[in-house]
Amino acid sequence: MAIYAIGAYYDEDVSGEFIAHNIAGPGWGIEKAPELHQFVRSLKVGDIVYIKSASPSSPDIIVKGIGVIINDEVVTTSPVVSAGRNIKWLVTESFRIPKPTEKNNVRLNTMYEEFHPHVQSEILNKLF
User: Fold this and answer.
1) Does domain 3-127 have CATH number 1.10.3470?
2) Sign of CA dihedral 104, 86, 75, 21
3) In this structure, how many other beta carbons lie within 10 angstroms of the beta carbon of residue 50?
4) Within 10 A of 38 (CB to CB), how many other CB atoms are there?
5) What is the Cα–Cα distance from 98 to 17, expressed in whole angstroms?
6) How far apart (Å, rounded) are the C-alpha atoms in residues 37 and 116?
7) How far, CA to CA in Å, does 41 sit from each of 5, 33, 86, 106?
8) Which tens digits make up the pLDDT trace of 81-118?
9) pLDDT at res. 103
10) From start to end of the chain, where are the E strands?
11) Other residues' Cβ atoms within 10 Å of the Cβ of residue 60
């Protein structure tokens, strides 16, 4: 099991759509973002995902939902994402985590594995 952050801003905030459709993934087609499509395929059943917003001007990571990947299906027919995973959303209220001071900051990426111990703890504390 791992923890992954997924952004949900594709010309507009679609985090509500992610939650309503029990899905998460990139909004760009495979031609524009082949690495994100491969990333989505690499996720495993039981992995934790959280919807994040981490604007450079914000001192916080805004978490908009936390869920778990529930099966190994890669969804490619969704009106919300171009390639996604089925998610059971366990936390749907937003909360903030102060951005950690770190050397390898990946917060602006659309998707990434979360390695920072403080952020991991905050995510897990909301689940258990």
Assistant:
1) no
2) negative
3) 24
4) 11
5) 25
6) 24
7) 15, 13, 12, 20
8) 989 999 999 999 999 999 998 887 788 899 999 999 99
9) 80
10) 3-7, 23-24, 48-53, 60-75, 84-91, 95-98, 111-113
11) 13
